[in-house]
Amino acid sequence: MPVYPGAPKVRAGRFGWLCVSNNGDCFCDNFRAKAVAAFVGLATPRGRLSGETRSCVGSGGVPRRDRAGFAMLRAVPYDPTIYQGAAAHYRQGRPPYSPELEPVLAEEAGLDGRGRFLDAGCGPGILTVRLARLFEEAVGLDPDADMLAEASRAAKGKGLSNIRWVQALAEDLPGAAPGPYRLVTFGQSFHWTDEERVAEAIYDMLEPGGSLALIVHTVTGRPRPPSPGLPEIPHEEIRMLVARHLGSTRRAGQGFSAPRGHRFQDVLVRTRFGEPRVLFLRGVPDLVRDSESVLSGYFSLASSAPHLFHDGGRTFAQDVRALLIDRSPDGLFWDWPGDTEVVLAHRDPQQATG
User: Fold this and answer.
1) Residue 38 dihedral angles phi and psi, to the nearest 5°
2) What is the distance between the alpha carbons of residues 195 and 201, in angstroms, rounded to a whole number?
């Protein structure tokens, strides 16, 4: 990746976001050095900045920033390497959401088996496959072809025939998967998007009274269940191994990732959805995972996907397996992924679709 004057900080996004901070200037990079945008009105290899790109700049030409101090800029293309090699590990390595998810969503969103459902940023279809039976038709949308192939295999394995898979970005909505929908979900994927823009597009795609659910695992501030007696996953030591192999700066595709500085609620309240409700559903308290599942969990992350390692992750895998066998000779660990947090918002039931 090119280095610009002043050593800019970069945050990459799966769905096309790039955040750069460089002494108050905005920069854009397509991860291939094909396009660079520097401040408002300057010429670039692709011409002057687009109106969309100018939106990162506030009054007086000062870049708008998130709470982490990063200028917000819409990168030109999606970086397809974000999860390269991760799809095969995702379903094995990611912990499940709360078993309460289906009944709570059915009650909160008034689901009755009818209508359509969109799972945006669906990855290998974790949520899509779980929730598809609650609807007449489901759509799983993701830009990663390997993720969608895994999702299709999982759906066939469950005997589901009402799911359509669409390879597209969330920013391609509504055109890529037109509504209306009774429910739209993002399972640990909304943070990769141009959040406010995507939320506004989703609002128009919902039926009157339809719901948007942003679903994540949350540990911070949640009551921790008692251990079932197995060793805990040594996450801190595994993260140190990631840093040893990849460096201390969190990676994401061809760029780097920065800590998130705002909540989903902060975004939705600025849209037509208004203030959302936040629900916490009890997570799985006694989840047991084996060593290979733990390793797959790390290979499923954008920050430690196999392609980031010079040897495809083979040496890293050896190091992790050695650590895990030292911590638990039988290779079993207790994992508490936290409670399932659902940020729930609704379209005005009195507002007709366009």
Assistant:
1) -125, 110
2) 10
Backbone angles phi, psi at 113, to 5 degrees: 90, -5
- What is the model's pTM? 0.80
**266-320 tens-digit pLDDT:** 999 999 999 999 999 999 999 999 999 999 999 999 999 999 999 999 999 999 9
Q: How far apart are alpha carbons 200 and 171 in whole angstroms? A: 11
**Three-state SS string across 32-88, please?**
CCCCEEECCCCEECCEECCHHHHCCECHHHCECECCCCCEEEECCCCCCCCCCCCHH
Give the integer Cα–Cα distance in Å for 178 and 156. 24
* Intervals of the chain under pLDDT 70: 1-77, 353-354
Cβ atoms of 105 and 131 closer than 8 Å: yes
The string of DSSP letters for 120-173 reads ET-TTTHHHHHHGGGSSEEEEEES-HHHHHHHHHHHHHTT--SEEEEE--GGGT
Q: Say if CB 125 and CB 149 are below 8 A apart.
A: no
The domains of the chain, with CATH numbers, are 9-74 (no CATH), 87-346 (3.40.50.150)
Residue 127 structure tokens? 């949520």
Amino acid at 64: R
